[in-house]
Records
---
Amino acid sequence: MIHAALLRKNVRDSALLWGGCAIGLFAISWVRVWFVSRVEMTRFQQIIELLPNDWRRFSSVDFEWLITYTGRISLVFDEPGVVLCLSIWAIARGSDVVSGELNRGTMEMLLAQPVSRMQIFFTHALVTTVGTLLLAALTLAGTTCGIQSFSVKEKRNVSPLPIQLPFPTPFDRTEEVTIPLRDVVEPADYFVGARNFAALGFMLAGVSAALSAFDRYRWRTLGIVVSAYIVSLMLKTFGLASETTEWLGYFSVFSAYEPKLLVKIVSDAPELLWALRVDSSIDGTNGLGPLGFDAILLSIGLAGYIMGAWRFHVRDLPAPM
Amino acid sequence: MAEPVRTPALTKRQDMLVVETIELAKRYGDFQALRSCTLSVREGEVFGLLGPNGAGKSTFLRMLLGFIRPTGGTAKILGLDCVAQSLAVRRKLSYLPGDARLYRSMRGKECLKFFAGMRSEGDYPRALRTADRLDLDLSRLVGFMSTGMRQKLALTIALSMNVPLIMLDEPTANLDPNVRGEMLDIVREAKQTGTTVVFSSHVMSEVEEACDRAAILRAGEIVHVQSMPELASRHRIRLSVAGPPPSIPQEFDPISLPAEGPRGLAFETGVELKRILPWLATLSPDDVRVEPVGLQTVYERFHQRKNVASGTDALAGSPEAGDVAKSEAS
């Protein structure tokens, strides 16, 4: 199924884009943690408290949890730059597989060789999927590096008495102490976020590949995918906006992309890391476990790849324009 | 109606069919791109496909490669079904598309290496030798190559595979005369090694020069298959005599052509000249012209040239008009 020469070509073709996205993702996630370490928790709390109460609806987790270091760092997976880098990689790669080759006119020369359409399709998909996994891993690596390398300053009450009492006393003085982030945050908690992030990339690549297999112009494939992306984002936003429009959220693939919620679930209960279902009393989950969220995205991506492969297998190839 | 397609009987030596299509057809909605194409190409043969743009030459070749699925009929290459066994078919052939596009980010050499690595029959050293023969600069990026250079590079890829069948779709388009000649030499050499070559072209002279047979397509239909050795024995004879024009002996199997003037006589025949010349000598003609019948003439029997400005048939009144009329009538 995988063709060695095609694999080398695909790796070569995607190297520049992947390299750019990899640097971007590592840097953004690392800088995000640095930013968390620079802004004092009390200031962040003040910012959050300024937000109107209605805005709480737009967050899948409690604002109170977001005022923890774990919560603040989990927002790395919702950073526009991070989501954009992964989306660019997945959509650019996915849309290239059939309509890209047809658009460039190179499909004829390629398929004139003894290589099956499935080999072309799945070799391309393999490189995209491995690239996506590595990008998610780099995002996690950037976050972990940040956690390991930065410290936070916290104000603590220190009692002058030789015995530390469990309650404040009038004699206490406030002292600023530096605490390494690794002492207050567990990097492994973000694995579940990175996994959800990778699943999002796989879903985007699969859907793009399916649309690419139906089309002959890459620009049109890109246009359709980006339009669907925006519509899906809007559906999620409308779904969160009020109770009456909540049902719209079920039509958005982004409803299954909830990295901060998953980080919260796993940081509270690490045994739920591989759970498909959880107690439906956990807010925002609808009984879906961390793996359940990923499974939805992976299923959509897989369905896209299967549909794309079928379409590419049976279609007539148009002559180059 | 079109002339029935005549396929000469196969010789004992050339009884291996490399390409065989039976009633091959392709329809896109109401548009019939290819209709009932029955054709066979023998081992070691150089076969030409002729026809105007849109006649179905590329569609025919692309169906053999499995790029397009037929809506009717069957196509086989070396006994392998072109749809069901497309991968095995493509192992047996190399193909140059009509509009060959290559990876713009690769250098010429990388491109050759990539395509040689795509198949076990790939031969990189041979590709380098072919590129050298075609005077191709392989150090340049494909994106910076001229159209002609890119065509040469694609041609090099197609001609450097160790396969029994080479299919070329308008291979000499965009090539300069020297490279065109070199390409035809390579085709001839391939034939000598027993390789079968099928190529489409708009250039009659190169088809006439390189091919053993050629099929003429019109509106998706094979309307004529011409054997080149047979064509070489056909002549047009025009003469003017002092008295009334004599009748042409039927043993010459003549096709009458419009004569020039009341004392003129013109006909086409496939009979050997040594049998005709003694008869001509008995007529004591004032003027005699003997011309070989070219492929162009045969082609124009099926594809009339139109005078674009007036929309009239440019052949009207010309010797070919009779042929065309006869062909159309048949």
---
Amino acid sequence: MEQVFTLTFLTGLLAAMMRMATPIIFGTLGEILAERSGVLNLGIEGIMLMGAMTGFLTTLSTGSLWLGVAAAAFTGIILSLLMALLAVWLGLSQHVSGIGITLFSTGLAMFIYRLAVGSPTNPPTVQPFTRTAVPLLSSIPVIGEAFFTQYSLVYIAFLLIPAVWVLLYRTSWGLSIRTVGENPFAADTVGINVNLVRTLCLAAGGALMGIGGAFLTLAHQNMFLIDVVGGRGWISIAMVIFGNWDPVRGAAGALIFGFLDALQLRLQGLGFNVPFHLFLIIPYLMTLIALVTMSRKASAPAGLLKPYRREEKG
Amino acid sequence: MRLTLAKRSPLPGWIQVLVPVGAILVTLALSAIPILAAGGDIRLSYASLFRGALGTRYNFLETCVKAAPLTFTGLAAAFAFRAKFWNIGAEGQLLAGAIAAAWTGIHAGSLPPAAAVPLVCIAGFLAGGAWAAIPAILKTKYKVDDVVTSLLLNYVMWHIMGYLLFGPLQMPGSSWPRSPAIAEAARFPVLLARSRFHLGIVLAAAAMLIVWFINSKTVFGYQARAVGVNPRAAAFGGINVNSVILKTALISGGLAGMAGVGETAAIHFHLLMDISPGFGYSGIAVAMLGRLHPLGTALSAFFFSVILVGAQSMSRITGVPTYIAEVIQGMSLLVMLVALLLTEYRIKAVRN
């Protein structure tokens, strides 16, 4: 038990928490952008898997990690534009469109991966991202190693949290997005192109989801496995609600999830016989409880799930 | 010039029936793109797909075997969606059913098959129904979105299963996450020689008939439809909306649970982490393609099964990866969605 109460353990735990939280932060921020404009993107799970796959294959063939990240973002944008076509422009059910995108992208990701690499006995690997130490800050004990000796994508994720917050609450674009999400008819009246705003939010969110997927295959691991995303997209959806559609609170939820995930991994690594599956239920229960306690406040964007057709007002 | 959607006058019934057929044809045409990309010869690929799924007696019966869980999860989704209870949780309910079936099946050794088989079925049905009742209660009591809760509960159940298979339900002496085998008496009998055509397939067909009966011949079926069309009007008309949603959830979850029972008691005989390759999620697409009608759902489950089984032999013969099946499934759902839209709306060009 002593080995748990050491600084090394704490440092390792916090560093792992940051890494486990990162893909979920990308997913959560991406989903918040979409939902704030009024579109629930249930395609997230499949989009993250496609991002993980294209990011990995691009890096495998070009050797460039950042090209992989860019390819993942691009894939996320393309798939989100498909989502926009179905759920925004054609006004189809957001639930079913999103599930359809996830089913389709999941199949496609596995199909393309098999096509590209065949079925070798050992899956191919890439040289993954290495950690970069932030000058000065990284020399602080514990904190320095845990928070400031990380992958660049971890820093990017954490910088995006305030960036998305500022975008939503402190810019006129953010005001447009929130108006479209809350009351598309009012937004239309003041000359905002509702469907265009929704499409752009989906696309930007899709890019973040794709990068979140690429983090898994280019930093967290160095290969593509079929269950590499493993429900992190759905967790992100839960964190959006847990965080009450606020980027900072959503990211805090992702950190709690990352902490629990890291804790069970570390304890297992030390040979403790933890029922890790029970550990991993905690974040889901947390979200369900948050849903029940928050439900009376009804804080979801009022326009969520409603396609906007000007001629069908009310 | 810009394009908009304009409401159509309702189309005649025979077109409504043809919509899924058209959607399947469009999907198969679009599937040529990934098949070509994989270097597959188009005619050979489709020929090997259909021959592999339907060409011989054994292959046809294998397709029936795969269609059974898809019929159950498809009916689960269709039954729930009809009452606008958005049950995306068939996967978790399936797992709940599989766990209950395994648990009772392991301990049913002393019973005769005539008691053991119904016991695992009832246990699985109840477990699935109980698991689906959670999102229904959260929806009716606390107004929590059922999509998100039913979806999250899939992972909760997956982890519960993981806990059980690494703990109390693990086969003694094994380091794999795998339960002991269920008793012989609890296994579904095979009904046709030289095949795996088992009791569960008959049960799936019976479930289809029962759902059809409930939907179209009972007061409850009428009420569920009324709640689906307009819950407020239904409540005003004296229907207890919450009770209808809860009952719908119990039946829907029970149907999904039966998919898990079949996989445990007729196919694997053990509980395994990968007992379901996503049948619960596929069920959503199956139900949509079947237009939420029980017969349509069973037919579209059969179509999905043709694709799943056929993709195996297509892959063997042409080298196209078997994951083409998942691509086609996802695509068919998206195509069907657009097709449904086009039955209600037409695209109209408007001059600005």
